[in-house]
Design goal:
Elements (H helix, E strand, L loop, with lengths): L2 E7 L6 H11 L7 E8 L2 E8 L2 H8 L10 E7 L14 E2 L5 E9 L2 H10 L12 H10 L5 H11 L2 E9 L2 E10 L4 E5 L2 E5 L11 E4 L4 E6 L2 E6 L5 E2 L4 E2 L4 H5 L6 H7 L1 H8 L4 H12 L3 E6 L1 H18 L3 E5 H8 L7 E7 L5 H13 L2 E7 L5 H4 L3 E4 L12 H21 L4 H24 L1 H11 L4 E6 L3 H16 L2 E6 L16 E5 L6 H13 L3 E7 L4 H5 L2 E5 L5 H5 L1 H4 L1 H14 L18
Parallel strand pairs: 16-17, 16-18, 18-19, 19-20, 21-22, 21-23, 23-24, 24-25
Antiparallel strand pairs: 1-4, 1-10, 2-3, 2-4, 5-6, 6-7, 7-8, 8-12, 9-10, 9-11, 11-15, 12-13, 13-14
Helix pairs in contact: 3-4, 4-5, 8-14, 8-15, 9-14, 10-14, 10-17, 11-12, 14-15, 16-22, 17-22
The chain binds 6-O-phosphono-alpha-D-glucopyranose.
The site of 6-O-phosphono-alpha-D-glucopyranose has 17 residues, from helix 10.
């Protein structure tokens, strides 16, 4: 999410500002909305920070210009999670005495209660961020006589959530202290200089030797060296120095050849983070949906297909039909027909898709409606027109084809559906618990799949390389998976696909089927399964090559298929309802390897843009 960098050096003739600026430039690829640099020199902190692009901020503030002789700098690129992308919310954050500076990557979940405690003790906060509680906590512990290291240890022990933090203190001009839990942190060692960063590319041109911090580890960095400690026991730990042999391009992609592949592999963590979205936010959506007479759901592209899956889940528990309308059709189709007391769920990864924004802006003026937005970007334009916003925690998505944001969008919609079920009392507590248990298992199911089934997907691709047309067919909730899985292949492998209802395909599409025509069936063992078997047989009888996506213990569809991709999840209704999340990575990978096999760049599909701001 955020990018962090720190340096402590005793090298002569260097410009610490230039080193920090170049480091955060190398973190730009991660996506960010603000940046900042602080140096610790002669008992004072010198700070430059703002929201916007690094180059623009540099033009205004000269980000490489800090007092000569500074030997410590911390730098940050912010990806807003708590508080809008503004100068005040940019990192670094300071304590009340302006002696302690902190940059942070991650989310402190209990920051509100900690902030209340600290306010009661007289601490004054400048920003809306969760990060700012860290310097104040450290300050508070130091006021009881603790040294910097012990005060940091005590502070992080009070924090729940994820953090990679970097701290400097004007009274400690000979060290930087870093701590990690769940958010990545690496330490780079050079002659006379030590670096830390959220990501290896930040210091790759400076050194190729590094240590990787594990969870609950602290490091004290001094020029050219570092000592490591266990946060829980305070014992010193020894770590192995690693030699990095990637080039900068590979390092940005975490060792993966493309961002898309990296982002597919990030799905389990993106889901885990999104599972921690505050319950009040989910509840606010559920209440607005429950009190509305009509409910619409609107989006574009992949977000629209997430809405098809979500519509199915919410309708099931709400007992009222949700209409999904593509954002570009919203105004046209509902002109003079949008009733008051409607709720509109708008979904957009970027929060900037102009057609989605236009749909909700129009709706707000046309009737008395509540706008409920789901986006991956805090402070994006869409949020300005919304009554309630939920931010998915997928982290920046660089690949043009959306992958990890899709699974987090469906997850949020499932959480809303389950909240509605609880509030309406339409399912017993035991049933709800079973659905929630299945939801919490989705990251593990995907992780398990990604760890073992890549060869199978690559083999399927090898056999399909020459095919130019595909059907992706399913029934019920899996129609969303068929459409989204097919869209990926269309977008990045430039194949023609039809993502369609398996039942409806006999009314037209089936006329195209010849020997060897590839048809991908999405077949979780839900209430549509038996009828889907009939559809598989119809296509098989006409020579179709059947590739099916099934659960591990599947037999019937397996027997009819040429190849199966198996997802190891229980064959019951709880997991079936969540199959749009657990089945999609297989199809994303299929599209990815297909794109690579036919010589295309999956990260840069032709004619497509990540964010579409034209009608
Ligand atoms: C573009 C992208 C798609 C994306 C769609 C909607 O077409 O290429 O990948 O799904 O916009 O984007 P949004 O940011 O609104 O989810």
């Amino acid at each position: 999410m955020c990018g962090i960098f720190g340096v402590i050096t005793n090298q002569e003739d260097i410009s610490i500002g230039k080193i920090a600026l170049e480091a955060i430039k190398r973190l730009e690829y991660r996506g960010y909305d603000s940046c900042g640099i602080v140096t610790n020199y002669n008992g004072e902190l010198f700070i430059k920070k703002d929201s916007g692009k690094i180059d623009e901020i540099h033009k205004r503030l000269k980000l490489d210009d800090f007092p000569e002789g500074s030997k410590i700098a911390l730098a940050h690129t912010r990806w807003a999670t708590h508080g809008a992308p503004t100068k005040i919310n940019s990192h670094p954050h300071l304590d009340c005495s302006n002696k302690i500076a902190v940059v942070h990557n991650g989310i402190i979940e209990n920051f509100m209660e900690l902030r209340n405690e600290l306010r009661a003790k007289g601490h004054i906060f400048q920003s809306e961020t969760d990060t700012e509680i860290i310097p104040h906590l450290i300050e508070e512990f130091m006021s009881t006589g603790l040294d910097l290291k012990t005060a940091i240890l005590e502070s992080v022990r009070k924090c729940t959530g994820a953090y990679g933090i970097v701290v400097c203190h004007t009274d400690y001009p000979d060290c930087i202290i870093v701590v990690r839990k769940e958010s990545p942190l690496v330490v780079g060692i050079d002659n006379g200089a030590t670096y830390c960063a959220s990501d290896i590319p930040a210091f790759l041109p400076l050194t190729r030797q590094c240590y990787i911090l594990d969870d609950d580890e602290m490091a004290i960095l001094r020029p050219g060296g570092a000592k490591f400690f266990d946060v829980k026991t305070n014992d010193e730990v020894s770590k192995n120095l690693i030699q990095i042999d990637w080039n900068i391009d590979a390092a940005e992609k975490g060792g993966y050849p493309h961002f898309m592949l990296k982002e597919i592999h990030e799905e389990p963590d993106a889901l885990r983070r999104t599972l921690k979205v505050p319950e009040e936010d989910i509840k606010a959506f559920a209440e607005a949906i429950l009190s509305a007479d009509n409910i619409y759901i609107t989006a574009a592209g992949t977000s629209f297909y997430a809405s098809l899956a979500g519509k199915f889940i919410i309708t099931k528990f709400l007992g009222k039909y949700l209409q999904a309308i593509e954002c570009s059709e919203f105004k046209t189709q509902l002109s003079n027909a949008l009733p008051d007391n409607s709720a509109i769920i708008a979904i957009s990864q970027s929060g900037e898709t102009v057609d989605t924004i236009e749909a909700i802006r129009w709706a707000k003026n046309a009737a008395n409606v509540k706008i409920l937005s789901i986006t991956n970007i805090v402070g994006s334009s869409m949020t300005r027109y919304s009554d309630h916003v939920i931010v998915t925690r997928a982290g920046p998505e660089i690949g043009v084809a959306a992958t990890k944001t899709y699974v987090t969008q469906v997850l949020i919609l499932a959480l809303i559906g389950l909240k509605i079920a609880t509030m309406k009392g339409v399912e017993s507590e035991d049933e709800i618990n079973e659905y929630c248990r299945a939801l919490r298992k989705t990251p593990d199911i995907i992780e398990n799949f990604l760890s073992k089934d890549i060869d199978l997907i690559q083999n399927i691709v090898k056999n399909l390389e020459k095919s130019h047309n595909f059907f992706f067919l399913a029934r019920g909730i899996s129609i969303a998976t068929a459409k989204e899985g097919g869209l990926k292949l269309k977008e990045i492998a430039c194949r023609f696909i039809e993502g369609y209802s398996a039942a409806h395909a006999k009314h037209g599409p089936i006329s195209l089927v010849r020997d060897g025509f590839p048809i991908i069936f999405i077949a979780p063992p839900d209430g549509t399964y038996e009828r889907l078997i009939g559809n598989v047989m119809e296509f098989k009888a006409r020579g179709g090559k059947i590739i099916s996506l099934v659960v591990e213990e599947d037999k019937k569809v397996t027997d009819l298929s040429d190849v199966t991709i198996r997802i190891d999840q229980p064959a019951n209704k709880y997991y079936n309802l969540l199959s749009p999340i657990t089945f999609i990575p297989a199809l994303q990978l299929l599209a990815y390897y297909y794109s690579v096999a036919v010589g295309l760049d999956p990260d840069k599909p032709q004619n497509l843009a990540k964010t579409v701001t034209v009608h």
